[in-house]
Design brief:
alpha+beta; 5-stranded antiparallel sheet; 3-stranded antiparallel sheet; globular
């Protein structure tokens, strides 16, 4: 009976150890948001660190930031780092592309997105990016109940 109990406990510990050691393709290491509001506008600063663990995590290196004429994005900064924090390269402003959020054909719409990719060929690595969103608080929008709100709510 003691041998069966010992074998069952041993197998259980091996199973628990294997499931807790599972490595994900990508992980969000840190996500912070800072909001500053006044009567005319709200400024939201988001900072994100994502760790890419293997080639299957490369799809998470394509970043898309939605915006509109009332929610403008500015000050996009990004970089790739090793796990120990050594900078590999910075995001260049020429790598940031404006696209329509609705269709790939027209830029005559109200919803857009800024897109960029921070990709490296040696794993694991971390991508860091930060950006500011300025939301214009307009009195006529408040009258009809369209308060400026966060994209994440």
């Amino acid at each position: 009976m003691k041998i069966k109990s010992f074998i069952c406990i041993s197998l259980l510990l091996v199973f628990i150890n294997n499931t807790s050691a599972q490595q994900h393709d990508a992980e969000v290491i840190k996500y912070t948001t800072l909001c500053v509001a006044d009567k005319d506008k709200t400024i939201q600063t988001d900072s994100v660190i994502i760790q890419i663990n293997n080639r299957a995590g490369d799809s998470y290196t394509q970043i898309s930031l939605p915006y509109s004429k009332y929610e403008r994005i500015s000050t996009i900064v990004g970089r790739i780092e090793t796990i120990d924090g050594t900078k590999i390269r910075d995001l260049k402003s020429s790598e940031i592309i404006d696209k329509s959020a609705i269709s790939n054909i027209s830029l005559y719409e109200d919803n857009f997105k800024k897109c960029f990719q921070l990709k490296h060929n040696s794993y694991p690595y971390r991508i860091f990016y930060t950006y500011k969103t300025t939301c214009i608080n307009r009195s006529e929008e408040r009258r009809v109940g369209k308060e400026c709100r966060s994209r994440w709510s």
